[in-house]
């Protein structure tokens, strides 16, 4: 009898596995970054893995080094992977002038900042990431140097810089030749400057095996430079990824940079729409659909844009929720569900999974707290990542809004024979969507909250969702009574009853003896 019970217990996992419908995971296509999701971190503020480089560290000064380094990132790669991310983007790791904790005041473009480690650490980071099937993006700056770069006082490098001037207005000449925040502006139209940065790019690619660059301040550098730069890095690695930062709300302006060879751009129009909608309940969803429609009209590849909800230049999304007297976890869940379910490459700023608070720069660059103990949002993010990686309609599918009712909306995504519905209820009441185009023999299964919606007598599928909640539904074959599952449950219960009976009988015999 004991052997029978043991066999039953061993069989249970297999029975349960086959009791549920199985869907094959989507396979990534080489070089297709639409399938990726990116974790963006500021090296100095992430994790201190090597205390031997902790000189000039002052954690009480928000503008000083706090101790994070490349070894710290290496030690947390498994943490990032567990969140579901397939790539990481690091702020610049090149040598900086004092207090250049953020990495954007570069004094040597071919040397690793001593606070962050060594070139060996940079190589190891890429190598360890690749072992985990993760990609690495280094922040790459060509627009300016730090004020203390040796070139600034070198007479032979005088024609490497534009004349010092403030940016007045929005003319392209002003944007490309003016000095940002007083930082010496490099003259990329000088052939020597141009060739230098071609060499720098090649140096980092060949030395470290990095998979891509996030290009800083793209609109402040001539398009002719970026066109040649793109051609050069692609000649080294045809799959090399270029993610550009063009800080603009105008998609027609941003789209011009995708046409010259920059693979993806951080999507500020999405950021503006998403933060407007999700920072508080009751806000109409129309801004989201308008942002997508504009992107669809202007971009050659709108689904390859990098979507985000906060970063190192803006207030934390958590702060926006707090400012509106909202529960940040609730707000984050809604916003992340939309971002992971809508077209684009999700980019999540470190600490969002806690969720970390922060105001204007530098308050939005606090040290990561790995001991927060708040796991609710982290687990939700892991769930979203698993869903997005499993269903290709969420990365490659078409996108259209099929229900528009103020703060409630349903978005449909279709890829080949797979259809998914992204349901967002940003209102303060339970909402029901009446979907009429579901084919016969099909049902909708909620992937987040594990509920099923079937056709009613009118041929409609009614999808109900509670206030301030979201879900992603997948269209699948209608399931009748799952006899295999019921059988598995009968075996489990029967085995448990038998086990209890054996123990009870044995105890009774022992008490009799």
Q: How is the topology of this model organized?
A:
Layout: H1 2-19, E1 38-41, H2 70-75, H3 77-82, E2 87-90, E3 94-96, E4 106-112, H4 119-131, E5 135-140, H5 172-177, H6 191-208, E6 212-215, H7 223-236, E7 241-244, H8 251-258, E8 264-265, H9 268-278, H10 286-298, E9 306-308, H11 317-323, H12 328-341, E10 345-349, H13 376-390, H14 393-396, E11 400-405, E12 408-415, E13 418-425, E14 431-435, E15 442-446, E16 452-453, E17 461-465, E18 469-477, H15 483-512
Parallel strand pairs: 1-2, 1-10, 2-5, 5-6, 6-7, 7-8, 9-10
Antiparallel strand pairs: 3-4, 11-12, 12-13, 13-18, 14-17, 15-16, 15-18
Helix pairs in contact: 1-15, 6-7, 9-10, 9-12, 11-12, 12-13
What portion of residues is helical?
A: 25-40%
- What count of helical segments does DSSP give? 15
Low-confidence stretches: 1-25, 481-486
Kindly report the spatial arrangement of strands forming the biggest sheet.
Answer: 8-7-6-5-2-1-10-9
Query: In angstroms, what separates the terminal alpha carbons?
Result: 22 Å
Q: Helix- and strand-based class?
A: alpha/beta
If you compute it from the alpha carbons, what radius of gyration comes out, rounded to the nearest whole angstrom? 27 Å
Average the pLDDT over all residues and give the rounded result: 90
Q: Which sheet architecture does the biggest sheet show?
A: 8 strands, parallel
């Amino acid at each position: 009898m004991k052997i029978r019970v043991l066999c039953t217990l061993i069989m249970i996992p297999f029975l349960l596995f086959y009791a549920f419908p199985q869907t094959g995971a989507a396979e990534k296509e080489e070089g297709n970054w639409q399938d990726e999701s990116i974790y963006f971190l500021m090296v100095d503020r992430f994790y201190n893995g090597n205390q031997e480089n902790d000189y000039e560290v002052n954690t009480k000064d928000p503008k000083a080094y706090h101790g994070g380094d490349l070894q710290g990132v290496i030690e947390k790669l498994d943490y990032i992977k567990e969140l579901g991310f397939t790539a990481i983007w690091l702020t610049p790791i090149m040598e900086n002038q004092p207090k250049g904790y953020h990495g954007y005041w570069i004094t040597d473009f071919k040397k690793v900042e001593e606070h962050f480690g060594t070139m060996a650490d940079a190589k190891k980071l890429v190598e360890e990431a690749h072992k985990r099937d993760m990609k690495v993006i280094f922040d790459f700056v060509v627009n300016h140097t730090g004020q203390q770069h040796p070139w600034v006082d070198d007479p032979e490098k005088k024609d490497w810089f534009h004349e010092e001037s403030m940016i007045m207005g929005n003319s392209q000449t002003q944007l490309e030749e003016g000095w940002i925040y007083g930082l010496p502006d490099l003259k990329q139209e000088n052939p020597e400057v141009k060739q230098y940065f071609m060499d720098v790019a090649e140096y980092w690619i060949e030395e470290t095996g990095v998979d891509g660059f996030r290009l800083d301040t793209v609109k402040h550098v001539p398009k002719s430079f970026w066109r040649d730069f793109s051609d050069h890095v692609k000649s080294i690695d045809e799959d090399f990824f270029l993610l550009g930062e063009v800080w603009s709300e105008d998609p027609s302006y941003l789209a011009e940079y995708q046409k010259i060879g920059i693979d993806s751009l951080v999507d500020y129009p999405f950021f503006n729409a998403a933060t407007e909608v999700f920072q508080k309940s009751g806000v109409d969803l129309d801004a989201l659909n308008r942002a997508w429609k504009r992107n669809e009209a202007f971009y050659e590849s709108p689904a390859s844009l990098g979507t985000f909800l906060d970063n190192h230049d803006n207030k934390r999304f958590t702060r926006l929720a707090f400012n509106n007297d909202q529960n940040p976890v609730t707000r984050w869940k809604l916003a992340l569900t939309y971002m992971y379910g809508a077209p684009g490459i999700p980019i999540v700023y470190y600490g969002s999974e806690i969720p970390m608070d922060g105001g204007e720069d530098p308050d939005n660059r606090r040290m990561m707290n790995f001991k927060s103990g708040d796991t609710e949002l982290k687990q939700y993010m892991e769930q979203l990542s698993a869903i997005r990686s499993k269903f290709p309609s969420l990365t490659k599918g078409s996108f259209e809004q099929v229900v528009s009712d103020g703060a409630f909306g349903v978005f449909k995504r279709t890829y080949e024979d797979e259809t998914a519905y992204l349901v967002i209820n940003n209102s303060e009441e339970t909402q029901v969507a009446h979907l009429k185009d579901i084919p016969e023999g099909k049902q909708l299964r909620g992937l987040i909250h594990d509920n099923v919606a079937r056709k009613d007598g009118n041929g409609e599928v009614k999808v109900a969702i509670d206030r301030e909640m979201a879900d992603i539904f997948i269209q699948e074959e209608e399931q009748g009574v799952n006899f295999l599952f019921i059988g598995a449950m009968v075996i489990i219960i029967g085995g448990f009853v038998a086990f209890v009976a054996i123990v009870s009988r044995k105890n009774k015999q022992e008490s009799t003896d």
